[in-house]
Each structure stands twice: as structure tokens, then as C-alpha cells.
Design a protein that fits this description.
Chain A has helices spanning about 15-25, 60-75, 115-130, 155-160, 210-215, 225-240, 245-255, 260-265, 265-280, 325-330, and strands at about 5-10, 15, 35-40, 50-55, 75-80, 95-105, 135-140, 145-150, 170, 170-175, 190-195, 195-205, 290-295, 295-300, 310-315, 320, 335-340, 345-350. Chain A is an alpha+beta fold. Chain A has one domain (about 5-350): Aminohydrolase, N-terminal nucleophile (Ntn) domain (Glutamine Phosphoribosylpyrophosphate, subunit 1, domain 1). Chain A has a seven-stranded antiparallel beta sheet, covered by helices on one side. Chain B folds into two domains: about 15-95, Alpha-Beta Plaits; about 165-505, Aldolase class I (TIM Barrel), CATH 3.20.20.70. In chain B, helix 8 packs across helix 10. The longest helix of chain B has 25 residues, at about 445-470. The chains are: A alpha+beta, B alpha/beta, C alpha/beta. Chain A: InterPro entries: GATase_2_dom, Ntn_hydrolases_N.
Chain lengths: ~350, ~500, ~240
């Protein structure tokens, strides 16, 4: 019911947003024109050492004042400005997109192996949980989320509103929403981002309640009622805080059936059993295709029953993952290979160091 | 009976025989162990006062000639002075004693399970058809690691270094609950053991030791250690697949148990390891647990004795500060906690405890799951819900509220023929279940009864997969704690908050 | 020839310590000496066989729990509940012990030279040939023999005044034998005093001699002393409390 698209250049060669806009809009039939979004890595080279916070402000006075004060408590604002936008007919802006380039104070997370990310995580949770008219929609280094909701939010309109063709990134995810609830909220469409990780999802899990309660027991605070929020936090927990490799994290989210595990060689059985034991509450059921990314990789995977489509394309240094092949060919007519991976086989592309 | 002003109570049941239908075959006389029927000449006489509504006579009457009416005599109706309170007063005015009663609570309070509605998928997510695609009910009971540790090998592969502690694997989230040999018959135990093996689950021994005839099924047994330590020695512990420490019982929280000497037959005496005919008194507390820090000592004593090879469960009654109790037990080293709601069954319990002490299992499980998550302890223990699990939707709801599995008690007895007449304490169960009288025990054929129990478990397992599939959930751990898939129907706001469930329509 | 194994328990957690003891027995040791014991719990827990384990130091809680056969000799004190749910074998403690000594013990012997704490012999029970015996050289505290369902509990009071009150609370089997007189006020509901007959004296004398022998005491004054015997007033102490619905 949604369309998703991801593209990554293994050698960090930049792509501007126009091709991504083109690709996503070929899948307009998958959406309802009430939400779309883009996320790109590599777009802020001048502030590469700062956490770029994209914030939706109800208004640039009171709400911004609260965000400014919160950020100053947790670190230093190097620079901030309104995100450039260009009004689109039919797209009604109900908030002001703002961006901060922020340096967290690592001393505020003593004892942490990743203090800056802990600080950023905490302040995102704090701002988003509060009734303060501000929602942080992305918070990583050299990365930014551009999205909107409500009538008129077709992929082209959202792209043009943010002028994403003006941004250059080496890894892009995009999402076209078929709204089912709160269509008017700008923070609701994917992508969802928490510092390194961004997530787009096509589908809807049946396990949101279990997954959310699990992830909240580790201090995350889910505020948007979306799967991708929970998925982003679950990946952050497993990969950053628990040190799992991404393929194991994906396996925890979409584990093999017990019958399959029973057939595996002993060591693999033990590993898979342990994963289901430890992360049973993170496992997701129901239909979904997820593409997640961080600055170094892009990973796509589906639910274990393969209820949602996922097409993978490769062409020279580019890896594409999309709901439909047409989206890939719209951006890369000469794509070299097209595959449709089996459920439980994550597609992982890594960016050269 | 002592002379007193009270006379006899109105009949509880009236038994009648349709004389046109009756052919005086005498099967009712043979079958009724309570002595309701008596043959005199060619007429069968009836003493309704002895009737317990066990239905044995009705079941075996070839002509359907017997009919039973409950409460054939009205009291003046009164909303406050109910029949039950009046009759309790008459009883105690006559005897001056504590009233004991059989089976679970009869308090007329709403059942929360009945006011929780399950979810189904429609268009935003598809239902799963369990006939075509797997819906996994396999459940592992025991500790789960909170996170995993790996060692990176030279070829960059990772190797798991976390050691998993023993878990009990069940193919369906249903366990057969602890009812002791002594409280129920050996044939009932054998039937349960066979059904457990057939279905791929386990049964509880209750506090009564393990009869040698059950040794062939010991790999399907959860052996119980209760405060009386009856039948408990190291060999008993080693026989079980898991060990349960009984700390409380939902039907009578805060008090112990008491098997009267009459029920301590030769065989019961052997398995309990006490003299024949002696009272078996289980104290209220374990006398080696007077403080919470003593619980880990008992847990570890049992684990040391069995060389850490078996999961150890603890069972507690659901009481007001359930969440705190559960969190305390979760820290003690146990692998699973069974929580017994106030509607839990019993052979005998003081009426005032049965009907007035404790809280419902629905609330207890929800608050336990929430508290364990809050304290980061949820992976430390599995949660088993027990105390009035009556049908498969109860199981789905209990799991959605946070349980890993359930124990069945009364439902299993009913599958063997029990009519829930509540007269277990008389020891005359005409179905051969709650009795030690050999002629009555012989009425329960373990082959037949085990099939009935297995049928019930099989049917419920099918229903659970259908309910889960309809909700688009394909593995039981994804149902666990998934309160978003429940809605409360006419439950008050406070209760919904405790359950962490939204009202219907929300 | 006896095979002796010595284990140093200094700083060793009880699980590896008990594994070492278990392994020594499996390897055929007749005697295991455990030195520097300081509170390690569950020594002898669940062990079978007839070996002797010598514990030098303070034995931790639940010494000899579920034990079935071996002999444990403690040169020092023992904490909470030595002999807990013990099946058979023997525990000899040269010092004193904590509360709930011989809790739910169903066979074998526990001898304590010094004092024991509250609830000594609680819910001891017997069955056929299995009859647990607890003998205390010193004094016992309150609720002695509570819930007692079988076996023999002897308190010698060799070191002064007996402190126990509420003796035999809920006793419904077995016997409590106390040297000297016991004030009626010290008996709990359900317990009653009866004279110690010559037959009783003959029956318990071997136990007393064994106790004296284990601790190097002169048996005669102990065997010939004046004793009070306490037994259940009824085998069904709670029978009159209940009626049926």
C-alpha cells in the first residue's frame, strides 16, 4: 500500500535528488497523495562533523525557543536556519521545517561507548515526547529527512517543495505513503530517522504492540505510532548498543521458522534459537518490506512470509531496492541485473570506506 | 446432627425420575457414589439431599429418565441477603466452623476475559490462513538472554558465545496444571501424562510426589516442591523435566493446604512419603522462606541438587501487590513464574478465601508483564497464566496481556468427565477423578480419558492458530504482550489503564 | 585404603565448590576435606553415597539439603537450615546452627553440639523405616518442633537454660525429648507432655550414646538424665476446625 525506493552508490559518488523524485513518482499508484518523503546521506559536507537536526516547528517562535533551549542544554548549536522550501499548489504547509547543525556535549553521557549518539537519542526522545510543537524528524551527521503529509503530498510535490534536486547524496531512500491514519501529520510519513539509521517501510506489521513495548523497555520512546519508528529504534538497539552485525539484526526482526531452524546444522541452530530467545519480542509479523540505511550501508528485507514485493537492481556501483522494477528503470534504464530475493534473505550493500 | 432451631436446609438439587421412562435397570443406583438412589423392591427411591449435580446418573441412564433441578425451593428474594450468605450463616450457626468449599470461586463478579475483544486483520494487513502458511505456537519456557555475545573468528564469521540456560519446549502454549495425586486419582494423572506426551507439552505433578506408575512419563513432568515437601527428595527432583516451587495458590492465597488423613491411602502415602491415614499439612509459607532473599536460596538449592540442568518455576497467587511480588520472584533465579488468579481451582479451600482473596488473572498477568518490562526483567522469566482458563480465546487474551503460556486445571478435569460439581473434598467423585476409592478410580479409563484431554488440547491449539492467523500473527512471541490487538468492552478507564488496553472503537 | 581428597574453598563460589565435591565422590573418594569454608551454601546438596565430607569453617545455608547418604562433619558453625529436606545420612556440627535446622527432614541424623535457632526440627516427618533424628547439645529457640509430623527431636541443654517456648506448635507426629523439666507455659497448642517410659529411654539411649561419642562426651550422665517427652495431643490437630459448604 506504499511505495519505497532506495539507491546507494558504493563509491560515494553523488546523485542529486531529481532521479530519485523520478523513480518514486513512477509508483504514485501505490500512494494516496497524502504523504511522501526522502532521506539522503552526504548532503551536508560543510557540516559533516555536526548532527544535522531536521525539526518540524509548529511556529518559529515558541516552538523554536523550546528547541533552542533544549539543544543548548545538551550541546552547542553551530548553525541553524529554515530549510529552504518552495510553495506548491495544493500542498498545505502546517509547520516550518528548520535545521540545526549541532554538536552534542559528550560529557553528558558519561560511561557510554557512544556518548554523542546517546545524547542525540535522549534529546530527540525528549523533544518528540513533549507537547512543545516541535518534532525532530532526522538527527544524523550529514543526513537529512525531507517529508510532508496531508493533501497534495504526492512524491513530486514534496520533492519540489524541498527542492531535493538541489541536494547531492550518495545514498537515498524515498517513500510514497498510502495514508491510513493521521494523514495530515507531517511527521507521519516515512522515512523515519534516528541519527545514523533511516527506515522506509512498505506494509504494516501486526506486531507493533509487542515490538513497541519491547523497545520502550530500553528507554526509547515511540511517539508516531509508525512501524518504521520502532524498526529504526530496534536496529539502533541491536546494532549500536548490542553490537549485532546487521544481518543478524535483520534475522532477529524477520526470523526463520522453527521448522527451518530445526533443519540447520547444530551451530547455526544454536545461533538462530538464541536470536529468537533474546529478540523474540522484536520479531515482526505481517506484511512488510523494509529498506534501512546508515552512512555505510543500505539493507533491504521482507517479512518471512514474503507478503510484500522487493525488487533489487544493480548497475555498476549502484544498488537499487524498490517496490517495483519500474522505479529502478525510471532512474536507471540500463540496469544490469534485476532480482527478487527470497524472504529472510536480506540484501546488504556496503559503501566503500 | 445436633438438635438446633435451624432444621434442615432447603434442597440444593431435586432429582426426579420419569417413571414412565424408567425401566428400573439400576444403573443410577450403581453409578451414584453419593447414595442418592436406592432400590427397594422394584422401585428406585431418591434422596435428593445427597445429590451434588455431578450428572453421573443422567449420563448413564439409558432412557434419559432422570431430571435434575437446581434450587427447587426459593428463598424470599433479596439482593443483599443472598441464598449463599444465608446458607453460610445457617451452616456456621450450627457448626461454629470455617466453611470449606470445592472448586474455584463462585463469586458473581464480571470475568474480564469476556470483556476483552480480539482483533482480526482486514485490509491494512492480510489475515494468515494457518492451513496454508505456518503459524508457530512453539514456546520455550525459561530464561532468555537480554543480549547475545559473539566472538569474531579469523574468517570474520561470528560465533555465539552466550550459553543458553535450559528451557522447556512446548509445541502449544498450554500446560496441564498442578493437581496432586491424592487430590485426584492415579488414573487421572496417567491420562494427563499420556495426553501431555501426545501433544508435546508437560503436566504438573502437584504437591504429592510421583507415583511409580508415572515414571515412564517423567520426561513430561513438572515436579512440584511445596511447603510440606511431600514426596520430595533428590531422585524426585531429578526425574522431572522441570521443577516448580509452589509458593501460593490462587484459590486460597496466604494459606497452606491440608490433605485429610482419609485421603492418604496406601499408594498416596507411598508417593507422599508419609504414614497412611495421617494428615498431610502444607504450611502457609515454606519454612525456609521467611524473607524474599530466602527464595533464591531455595531456588539455588534445587538447582544445585539437580546440577543446573532443569528449569525451575515458581508459582504464586495473584494478590494486590502482584507486580512487586513478580518482580521480586523474577530476581530469584527462577526460570518461569506461574501466576494463579483468584478464580483458580482447588479440591478444598475456605469459602472466604476462595471468594474474597486475590485478584483476577487477567489483571495479574498484565501488571506482571508491564512491571517486568519496566524493570528490564522480562527476559529473566517466562510467565504462565493460570486460574480459570476456560477456552482457547482466554489463552490468546492471556498471552496478548503478557503471558508466555497457560496452565489448565479444571478444563482438563472437565475433559475427563468432571461436571464441576465442586464436591472434590468428599473423595467420592463418581467420575473416578477426585477420589482414591478404587472402584471409582477404575471407572476412569486412562486410555479413553487421555484421548479426551489430547482432543481438547488439539482443538484449542487449532483455534489459537486460527485466531492468530486471523490477526495476521504468525508466531506466538509476536502475540505476547501485544495488547494493541485487544480492546476492552465495557471495562472502566482505571482497569483499561492497568491492562494497558484501549477501549473498543479506539 | 581410604581415598581422601582435599579441596581449598577459599574464595570459591558454591557452584564450582559443589562441583568439585561431586566430582571427588564420582571419582571414588571416601573422604573429602573442604578447608577454608566461609558461608558457601548447599554443601552436600542432593549427594548420594556413603562418603564423608569434612567441612572446616562456617558452612553456609542449606547444608546437606536433599542429601541421601553421605556424612558431613562441620568443624565450625552452620548457617540457616542444615539438614533441610534431607533423606538419609548424617550431619555432625561441632558448633552451633541457625534457624530451621532439619526443616522437613525425613531421614538420617543431624547432631549439633552447640545451640540451634528458631523453629528447629520444623515439619520433620517420618515414613516407614525412615525416621529423622535431630539432637541438639545446647539450647533451642522458640517454635521448636513446629508442625512436626514425625521423627525424634532431642534437646540436651548441656550448656545452660533452654530458651524454647511455643514448643511443638501444631505437632501432629513424632516426639520431642528435652532434658530436665519443661514448664507447661512453654508448650504450644497441640502439644502435650507425657512421662518418658523405660521403653522410651531404652529406645533413645543408642542415639544419645552415638551423640556423646561423636563429640567426645561422657555418655552416662546424658543417658541417665531426667527427660520430658512431648508428643502431639492429637494426630489430627486441625480436624475440628472445618465444616463443608
Amino acid at each position: 500500500m506504499c511505495g519505497i525506493f532506495g539507491v546507494m552508490d558504493k563509491r560515494r559518488q553523488m546523485m542529486d535528488g531529481s532521479g530519485i523524485r523520478e523513480a518514486l513518482s513512477t509508483m504514485n499508484e501505490r500512494g494516496s497523495g497524502e504523504g511522501a518523503g526522502y532521506v539522503a546521506y552526504g548532503i551536508y559536507p560543510d557540516y559533516r562533523d555536526c548532527y544535522a537536526l531536521h525539526v518540524f516547528l509548529d511556529n518559529p517562535c515558541e516552538s523554536k525557543g523550546i528547541v533552542d533551549a533544549t539543544l543548548e542544554q545538551w550541546g552547542t548549536i553551530e548553525h541553524d536556519e529554515a530549510i529552504p522550501t518552495c510553495d506548491q499548489p495544493g500542498l498545505r504547509a502546517n509547520c516550518t521545517p528548520w535545521r540545526y547543525f549541532f554538536k552534542p556535549d559528550a560529557s553528558l553521557a558519561p560511561g557510554s561507548a557512544t556518548p554523542e549518539k546517546d545524547v542525540v537519542t535522549n534529546l530527540v526522545m525528549q523533544i518528540n515526547a513533549g507537547a512543545n510543537g516541535a518534532e525532530v524528524v532526522s538527527s544524523g551527521k550529514n543526513v537529512g529527512v525531507f517529508k510532508s503529509g496531508g493533501a497534495g503530498s504526492w512524491p513530486e510535490a514534496v520533492a519540489d517543495y524541498y527542492r531535493i534536486q538541489d541536494y547531492e547524496g550518495y545514498l537515498w531512500l524515498a517513500h510514497n505513503r498510502y495514508a491510513t491514519s493521521s494523514p495530515e501529520l507531517w511527521e507521519r510519513p516515512d522515512p523515519f530517522n534516528l541519527h545514523d539509521w533511516s527506515v522506509v517501510e512498505n506494509g504494516k506489521t501486526t506486531t507493533y504492540g509487542t515490538n513497541r513495548r519491547y523497545i520502550e523497555s530500553f528507554g526509547y520512546n515511540c511517539t508516531t505510532s509508525t512501524d518504521s519508528e520502532v524498526i529504526a529504534y530496534a536496529i539502533d538497539l541491536m546494532v549500536r548498543r548490542h553490537g549485532l552485525d546487521i544481518d543478524l539484526a535483520v534475522r532477529a526482526l524477520a526470523p526463520p521458522y522453527w521448522e527451518e531452524i530445526d533443519q540447520m546444522p547444530e551451530a547455526e541452530q544454536k545461533l538462530n534459537r538464541a536470536l529468537r530467545f533474546a529478540y523474540g519480542s522484536a520479531a515482526m509479523n505481517g506484511p512488510f518490506t523494509v529498506v534501512a540505511a546508515n552512512p555505510d550501508m543500505m539493507v533491504g528485507f521482507t517479512d518471512r512470509g514474503k507478503l510484500r514485493p522487493m525488487v533489487v537492481g544493480e548497475c555498476a556501483d549502484r544498488l537499487y531496492i524498490a517496490s517495483e522494477e519500474s522505479a529502478i528503470r525510471a532512474m536507471e534504464p540500463d540496469v544490469e541485473s534485476i532480482t527478487r530475493p527470497a524472504a529472510g534473505e536480506p540484501v546488504i550493500g556496503r559503501v566503500a570506506p | 446432627m445436633n438438635a438446633c432451631n435451624l432444621g434442615s436446609m432447603p434442597l440444593r438439587y431435586r432429582v426426579t425420575i420419569d417413571r414412565d421412562q424408567c425401566m428400573e435397570c439400576g444403573r443410577c443406583v450403581e453409578n451414584c457414589s453419593y447414595g442418592v438412589f436406592r432400590q427397594e423392591g422394584d422401585k428406585i427411591l431418591i434422596n435428593s439431599r445427597k445429590c451434588t449435580a455431578c450428572h453421573r446418573c443422567l449420563t448413564y441412564c439409558p432412557r434419559d429418565a432422570i431430571m435434575l433441578t437446581e434450587q427447587p425451593c426459593d428463598y424470599r428474594s433479596h439482593p443483599v441477603w443472598s441464598r449463599q450468605v444465608r446458607e453460610a450463616i445457617y451452616n456456621q450457626a450450627r457448626t461454629g466452623k470455617i466453611i470449606l468449599a470445592g472448586m474455584g470461586s463462585v463469586a458473581d463478579l464480571p470475568v474480564i476475559f469476556d470483556r476483552l475483544m480480539l482483533d482480526a486483520s482486514q485490509v491494512t494487513t492480510p489475515p494468515t490462513d494457518p492451513l496454508r502458511e505456518p503459524v508457530e505456537l512453539r514456546t520455550y519456557l525459561g530464561k532468555k538472554p537480554g543480549k547475545l555475545d559473539f566472538r569474531r573468528k579469523e574468517n570474520a564469521d561470528v560465533e555465539l558465545t552466550t550459553e543458553l540456560t535450559p528451557n522447556l519446549m512446548i509445541e502449544t502454549p498450554i500446560l496441564l496444571g498442578h493437581m496432586s495425586y491424592g487430590a485426584i486419582s492415579l488414573n487421572a494423572h496417567i491420562a494427563m501424562a499420556r495426553a501431555a506426551r501426545e501433544i508435546g507439552t508437560y503436566m504438573g505433578t502437584g504437591e504429592g510426589g510421583l507415583h511409580p506408575n508415572l515414571y515412564p512419563y517423567e520426561d513430561r513432568m513438572i515436579v512440584q516442591v511445596a511447603s510440606g515437601r511431600f514426596g520430595v527428595n533428590v531422585d524426585y527432583l531429578n526425574r522431572g523435566a522441570a521443577i516448580e516451587l509452589k509458593l501460593g495458590q490462587g484459590a486460597k492465597p496466604g494459606i497452606g493446604g491440608h490433605l485429610t488423613g482419609e485421603k492418604v491411602s496406601k499408594d498416596v502415602s507411598k508417593t507422599r512419603m508419609i504414614p497412611q491415614g495421617s494428615d498431610a499439612i502444607s504450611p502457609a509459607p515454606h519454612h525456609d522462606i521467611y524473607g524474599i532473599e530466602d527464595l533464591p536460596q531455595l531456588v539455588h538449592a534445587v538447582k544445585e541438587a539437580t546440577e543446573w540442568k532443569k528449569p525451575v518455576f515458581a508459582k504464586i497467587a495473584a494478590v494486590n501487590n502482584n507486580a512487586e511480588n513478580v518482580a521480586a520472584v523474577a530476581r530469584s533465579g527462577v526460570d518461569a513464574i506461574a501466576i494463579d488468579g483468584f478464580r483458580g481451582g482447588t479440591g478444598a479451600a475456605p469459602r472466604v478465601f476462595r471468594d474474597h482473596v486475590g485478584i483476577p488473572i487477567e489483571v495479574a498477568i498484565a501488571s506482571a508483564d508491564k512491571e517486568l518490562r519496566k524493570q528490564g526483567l522480562r527476559n529473566e522469566v517466562s510467565l504462565i497464566a493460570c486460574g480459570s482458563i476456560r477456552e482457547s480465546p482466554d489463552i490468546v487474551k492471556a498471552i496478548a496481556l503478557g503471558a508466555d503460556a497457560v496452565y489448565l486445571g479444571t478444563a482438563v478435569l472437565a475433559a475427563m468427565g468432571c461436571r464441576v460439581c465442586g464436591n472434590c473434598y468428599q473423595g467420592l467423585c463418581p467420575w473416578g477423578i477426585a477420589t482414591q476409592r478404587q472402584d471409582l478410580v477404575d471407572r476412569l479409563n486412562p486410555d479413553v480419558a487421555s484421548k479426551q484431554v489430547a482432543n481438547l488440547l488439539h482443538a484449542w491449539t487449532l483455534e489459537i492458530t486460527e485466531l492468530m492467523g486471523a490477526a495476521g500473527i504468525t508466531s506466538i512471541e509476536s502475540l505476547r504482550g501485544n495488547r494493541d490487538r485487544l480492546r476492552g468492552y465495557m471495562l472502566d478507564e482505571g482497569l483499561l489503564e492497568v491492562l494497558d488496553v484501549k477501549p473498543i472503537g479506539a | 585404603m581410604t581415598k581422601q581428597v582435599t579441596i581449598d574453598a577459599k574464595g570459591v563460589h558454591y557452584t564450582p565448590l559443589n562441583q568439585q565435591i561431586r566430582k571427588a565422590l564420582e571419582d571414588g573418594a571416601d573422604e573429602v576435606v573442604v578447608n577454608n569454608v566461609l558461608g558457601q551454601r548447599f554443601i552436600g546438596d542432593g549427594l548420594h553415597g556413603d562418603a564423608t565430607i569434612r567441612v572446616n569453617g562456617v558452612a553456609g545455608g542449606d547444608l546437606a539439603m536433599f542429601m541421601s547418604g553421605p556424612t558431613i562433619i562441620v568443624h565450625g558453625n552452620a548457617e540457616h537450615a542444615p539438614g533441610n529436606t534431607m533423606d538419609s545420612g548424617k550431619v555432625v556440627i561441632h558448633g552451633s546452627a541457625g534457624d530451621a535446622v532439619a526443616h522437613s527432614m525425613r531421614g538420617g541424623k543431624v547432631f549439633v553440639r552447640g545451640d540451634i535457632g528458631y523453629r528447629g526440627g520444623i515439619h520433620m516427618k517420618q515414613y516407614e523405616t525412615q525416621r529423622p533424628i535431630l539432637v541438639v547439645g545446647g539450647s533451642a529457640q522458640t517454635f521448636l518442633g513446629e508442625y512436626m509430623a514425625g521423627g525424634l527431636l532431642v534437646v540436651l541443654g548441656l550448656d545452660g537454660v533452654m530458651k524454647a517456648r511455643e514448643i511443638g506448635s501444631g505437632i501432629h507426629g513424632g516426639e520431642i525429648v528435652i532434658r530436665g523439666d519443661v514448664d507447661d507455659a512453654c508448650l504450644a497448642a497441640g502439644a502435650k507432655k507425657v512421662p518418658l517410659t523405660d521403653e522410651d529411654r531404652t529406645r533413645i539411649a543408642p542415639v544419645l550414646r552415638e551423640f556423646a561419642d561423636d563429640f567426645g562426651l561422657d555418655p552416662e550422665p546424658i543417658v541417665n538424665a531426667n527427660y520430658t517427652r512431648i508428643v502431639p495431643a492429637s494426630a489430627r490437630p486441625f480436624a475440628g476446625k472445618y465444616t463443608w459448604e
